[in-house]
Amino acid sequence: MNQDPRFQGKHYPVNKIIPFSSVDGPGNRTAVFVQGCNFNCRYCHNPETRELCINCGECVKSCPAGALGMQDGLVSFDPAKCVSCDTCIHICKHNASPRIRWMTAEDVHREILKNVPFIRGVSVSGGECTFYPELLHDLAVLCKRDGLGFLLDSNGMYDFSEDPAGLLPVIDGVMLDVKAWSAEDHQRVTGCDNALVRKNIRTLGERGKLFEVRTVVVPELFHVEETIVETARAIRPYLAIARAQKHSEVQDIRYKIIKYRPMGVRKEYQEMCPPEDAYLKQLAELARKEGIRDTIII
Known about the structure:
26% of the residues lie in helices and 20% in strands. The chain folds into 2 domains: 5-50 and 100-297, TIM Barrel; 53-98, Alpha-Beta Plaits (2-Layer Sandwich), CATH 3.30.70. α8 links the parallel β10 (254-259) and β11 (295-297). The longest helix is centred in the middle third of the chain and has 13 residues, at 133-145. The chain is built from 8 helices and 11 strands.
């Protein structure tokens, strides 16, 4: 994954930076999205963030705005010319996007500072943000120095119990995706095992760093009710720890139940059916019965 020469000098692939977001954590925040993910979720709503561009150049000749070019055998991107028509994404056969800026933590931090004082904090997502733990560490230090909250939106495949990059001391918390509860279902949804995801619920919960868990509801794909109930039971022991937090983004553990919608997904998965709103309300009630009072549907 990290063979691109632009990784040298602590430059990392940033897919986009949303200056103001109200759906990526508490309050008004800047949301940073990196490129690359080790899951292959069948319902992924932004599959173009899964892989890094392989520099085949197929998208360059099709860009109507001339925002893409080739330089030293690599696809280059000029954001000033881009009109966000998504032609390059539709053409790409590799679940990638050429619209990447290679940025250091300092570069990203400078972009974030443009939004102060109108933001409360920063959330880093993807792709999968923990692909680049050194970026997260350095960016968190810079943001916390400026009094900004700092959250990660992660699929849970970074081992927070080992924490080789030293993330836990410098971040406020993690918004953790629970794709499915059983190992079999998780393999069906993502192509990966979920033992580490479940371990991270314990690690983050014990250390007061579990801000939120999220499940996208696709009834025909996995055992949804089992996932909701077992996930709620898994996070329940750590509610008191979260509620005891002071001067932190984490003050309770939220369960966000997300309705699958077929927009943006790959063609082969567009036939999966969105769940009924009444069913989502039933799922939310299951979580609340297990003691997760901060349960919301989106």
